[in-house]
Amino acid sequence: MATGGRDATAVPEGADDTPLHRAIGPKLLILFVVGDILGTGIYATTGQVAGKVGGALWLPFVIGFVVAILTAASYVELVGKYPKAAGAALYTQKAFQVPFLTFIVAFMVMCSGLSSASAAARAFSGDYLGEFTDLFPPTLVAILFILALAALNLRGVSESVKTNVVLTVVELTGLFVILAVGAWAVLTGEGEPSRLGEFQAGGTGYALITSVLGATALGFFAFVGFEDSVNMAEETKDPVRTFPRAIFTGVAVTGTIYVLVALVSSLLVDYRVLEGSSGPLLEVVKAGGLDFPPKLFALIALFAVTNSALINIMMASRLCYGMANERILPRALGRVLPRRRTPVVGIVFVSLLAIGLVSTGEIAGLGDTTAFLLLCVFAVVNIAVLVLRRDRVEHKHFRTPTVLPVLGAITSLILASPLSDRPADVYIRAGVLLAIGIALWVLNKAVMRARGETHAPRAPRAPRP
Prior knowledge:
The chain is an all-alpha fold.
């Protein structure tokens, strides 16, 4: 890929003026990216994707992988060009200079994290937990799960990141178990290879296209997470060099694993069985022929969805804090817990929204809401990288070929559109979340006007850990 500017060893403008501690090296960042992508999507929504497309379960994950790589290339260029902890909001503001659009993008990213955490909470309370107990209503378990993560988040970012590393190793182990089951099945002649080419819609034409697009839009939920890592830019050592390798490696590793897991799942289990389970990979383990304890795999899966939820609650609360700190949202949402230095009001606010989501949605709908919100954001980011080509910086950085962001914007818009056969409740849920954000925006502007304050919002920043 082409690069521009001067010596690669040059320090980017503004790279050393951050108050945040640069503690994340290349290996830890790769683990963070992998851990952020892995989790709820593959562990919980595989069955729902199978229900939309049929036995050709692998195809939506292949398409989702391509779309993710296209947008990841745009993020890599932008985070190298502007190594600041603000992500899509920073890029939107720099490209378009429209504060309200910047707010909408930032709030959509925050809400995508909440809907993702809520999907994880629903997955936690489903069939995986059912291997151990079914004494408590799933909704109650999901709410308690959100509250427990909020408590951990309040303790501090250090505890949260360390927990993420441990859980990432655990969830990778679970997926390797699935791959081992698949390898054993192939060697022993188990499974039904003919299912890999079956489509639920049958035939060809518009019905087939919409079923594949719908499955891809939902399956894309499994790939989200790499965009969160750019919010750690000010806590990463040498971000201009570190991020390209970390993001591309993270997406490539997870994409390869996802496609292989999808192949194994379809090979061993009928798509109708997968569709009916909130713990589809548990069905794969039970059908695989290996004597692997289902309860142990269920425990691994519980750790995996916990990791997804933890990271998303953490990122959403930091974005909320950042928007309050920049006077984009009411100032009260930026209050910090004195001893722990964590954004206490932001954590409470996003946790309440997450509780509302788990009380009104199921795994597939919440996962699809996450994908829809982020696909809209990705379309804006892919356009922003082209607009910002006119903004030259002095330091050398990664530059993606122009065709990639163009294709990234087009594919993101297609998957976000009604062509993907998305249920109406997904659009309604996303609309309600945005309405809450806009109401807070209007309230904040009214309060600032009454106080005689004026402030042109910049992109929100993360708090110091």
